[in-house]
Specification:
The chain has 323 residues and is of the alpha/beta class. 40% of the residues lie in helices and 19% in strands. It has 12 helices and 11 strands. Helix 3 links the parallel strand 1 (31-36) and strand 2. It is globular. It starts with a helix and ends with a helix.
């Protein structure tokens, strides 16, 4: 469930809420501007502790999805670090980022590193299916192919792929996992979708409250919902879950590159990685030791290359479905 008022409070604390904080603001050299679409639970502890230890003033700007943030960066909006985006979306605009090999690079499995170090993984972020276990008690959706079954027509919640990186990943996962031309696979899925929502977090809410029976979201959000007692069960698709790293990427020619590098190094510190594990996240430095779900043979770079085409298909199909 989205926590609107706590998030507003956090943003006021981080970005300033009046003259007192502005009066104490450091020189420009001691600032860092972060763009993120991830929830405050992912970044807030790290940001606060980083500020305390370094004296660097951090501004956090949020949006409902990663794609609007990438558009803002492309348009030249001031930003130093993009936080919490997966390689399939990052690779679609890789020219935006400045390479950086962090201090803990040797602790990141090669399978999750970009060959040019244009972004730095800090956790693993499986994309999973969920269903409302009070409303669905037999024939549960257990695969990507389930999302194209007429049994769930009008009952599936999906993050909007024109906004949400998770939504983009879901579309690419289906086209890579299922037989048939991409346009036909996506057409079958669109016919089953009931709600297209701004974020993966909204999907969890829609399934938990019964507006939809089935949804696509990220593992951390699903696990948090289940642990809090909501009527949500997590499913790793039979064909394999998409397991990508959640990444931080430094913006090329940004104003505070050294501070962005320092924040990435802090994210990869043992202390912060341990805290992530307490928030249902999978720290990247433990990626080789945890029990990962069966993974789909998912190519994020191919997904990034096809992203514009996939979104064009989606837009065409959803326009056809609109009354």
């Amino acid at each position: 469930m989205r926590r609107i008022f706590p998030l507003l409070l956090i943003l006021l604390l981080l970005c300033g809420c009046g003259g007192n904080r502005d009066a104490a603001a450091p020189e420009d050299a001691d600032r860092l501007v972060i763009f993120t679409a991830r929830s405050a639970a992912v970044y807030d502890d790290a940001v606060r502790e980083f500020e305390r230890r370094t004296g660097i003033w951090v501004e956090v700007h949020t949006a409902d999805g990663a794609l609007p943030l990438l558009e803002q960066i492309t348009a030249g909006q001031r930003c130093d670090l993009l936080l919490g985006v997966t390689p399939d979306c990052l690779s679609a605009c890789g020219e935006l980022f400045a390479p950086y090999a962090p201090e803990a690079a040797a602790d990141i499995p090669d399978a999750y590193r970009d060959s040019g170090d244009r972004w730095t993984p800090f956790s693993l972020l499986p994309v999973v299916l969920i269903y409302n276990d009070q409303l669905v008690q037999r024939n549960v959706p257990d695969s990507w192919s389930s999302l194209t079954s007429s049994a769930w027509r009008g009952r599936i919640a999906c993050p909007d792929p024109t906004v949400s990186a998770t939504g983009c990943t879901a579309l690419e996962a289906m086209t890579q996992a299922l037989d048939g031309e991409a346009e036909q696979v996506l057409a079958d899925f669109v016919r089953c979708v009931g709600d297209v929502l701004p974020t993966a977090e909204d999907v969890v809410t829609a399934v938990a409250d019964g507006r939809c029976y089935v949804g696509v979201t990220t593992e951390d959000l699903a696990m948090q919902a289940a642990a809090s007692g909501l009527s949500v069960t997590v499913i790793y698709p039979r064909e394999g879950a998409v397991v990508q790293p959640d990444c931080a990427a430094i913006i090329a020619d940004c104003a505070h590159e050294d501070n962005a590098r320092a924040f990435i190094d802090f994210l990869l510190s043992s202390e912060v990685q341990t805290r992530m594990a307490e928030q249902f996240l999978r720290p990247i430095r433990d990626a080789g030791s945890g029990d990962l779900p069966p993974a789909l043979a998912y190519d994020p770079y191919a997904a990034g290359a096809h992203q514009a085409e996939t979104l064009d298909i989606w837009s065409s199909l959803t326009a056809e479905e609109t009354p």
